[in-house]
Amino acid sequence: MPERNSISWNAVISAYAHYGQAKNAIKMFEEECMKYFELMEHEYGISPWKGHYACVVDTLGRVGRFDKVQKMLSDMPFEDDPIIWSSILHSCRIHGNQDLARVAAEKLFSMGSTDATPYVILSNIYAKAGKWEDAARVKKTMRNRGLRKESGYSWVEVKQKIYSFSSNDQTNPMISEMKEELERLYKEMDKQGYKPDTSCALHQVDDDLKLESLKYHSERLAIAFALINTPPGTPIRVMKNLSACLDCHAAIKMMSKIVNRDIIVRDSSRFHHFKDGVCSCGDYW
């Protein structure tokens, strides 16, 4: 390039981060975000914009530094907005911070958000903590306000045709073969120490039913379908409209090692490139 400026470097950093190449993103950025945030004003006399504050809040929240998140909010010379509180709410989901999640969700509700996502995230945080009454209350509020949760589904392209799956989907004519393939994988995964995370099954049912529901999440069905319909060794590319759960992420890592294939899952956050039991995101998303 004849000229490399902040736009071009930010594009490279964003691309690395979007694809889950966290180490390369940090390498391009050279240091921690707080150092550069402070250098802007103290070293170069540049007053940070609201977007800079939002980026720092997002970074601090993702690593669980909620004390610094709250200080950043109090120091910020701008009005907060839905982007900042959505970022905080997603960080609370990662780290299970119920108190701040409730504050973030209430902020989003008061800002007139017509998106069901804050309700779903807050309800899931309560459900994961076993607070079923609180989870039900949030869901009831969501329904009373006429909002609906987006249905999760995954899709995969095989021989130039798109196949779509929802969780526990029984409509595909090859469902029996897909379940057999998954059961074969689960036996191998069990030998290698895989332990399902039943906290990802966000329903008030017994553990056996929770385990059963985890087995057939939409991305797993899509992967099973691709495994039995594509040549050995070829990469598998799955798209998903929502974020992958923690248990699916752990399971797909092991699957990629067992079947000796690259499995690329594009969820609502980023690309996850699973290879030899490792994900490109470094288990950080």
UniProtKB/TrEMBL annotation:
Transmembrane segments: none
Swiss-Prot/TrEMBL PPR repeat ranges: 5-39, 115-149
Highest taxon in the source lineage: Eukaryota
A biological process term (GO) from this entry: RNA modification
Record key words, sorted: Repeat, Transit peptide
Ranges of residues in domain DYW: 193-285
InterPro entries associated with the record: DYW_dom, E_motif, PPR_At4g14850-like_plant, PPR_rpt, TPR-like_helical_dom_sf
Gene Ontology MF annotations: RNA binding; zinc ion binding
Keyword set includes Membrane: no
Short name of any one Pfam family annotated for the protein: PPR
Protein name: DYW domain-containing protein
Protein's organism: Triticum turgidum subsp. durum (Durum wheat)
